[in-house]
Amino acid sequence: MRRIVIALTLSAVALVAAGGLTDRMWLLGLGVWALIAAFMIEMIYRP
Fold it and tell me: How far apart are CA 44 and CA 38, in angstroms?
């Protein structure tokens, strides 16, 4: 489960950075939703 959270967080950072550099709002939106999903998984499945 930890690998999924790390992968989601890294992909969110990459999407937000790409969206910020290219001024694409849909990339920013995907990055934010991926970050929200990573934090929700971390909160719900905390050992």
Answer: 10
Torsion of CA 41, 36, 13, 20, to 10 degrees: 170
pTM: 0.81
- The residue among 47, 30, 43 whose CA lies nearest residue 11 is 30
Judge whether 27 and 45 are in contact, CB under 8 Å. Answer: no
Quick one: pLDDT at residue 2? 84
User: What stretches in the chain show pLDDT beneath 70?
Assistant: 47
The rounded distance, in Å, linking the Cα atoms of 36 and 9 is: 9
- Residue pointed to by tokens 């992968």: 7
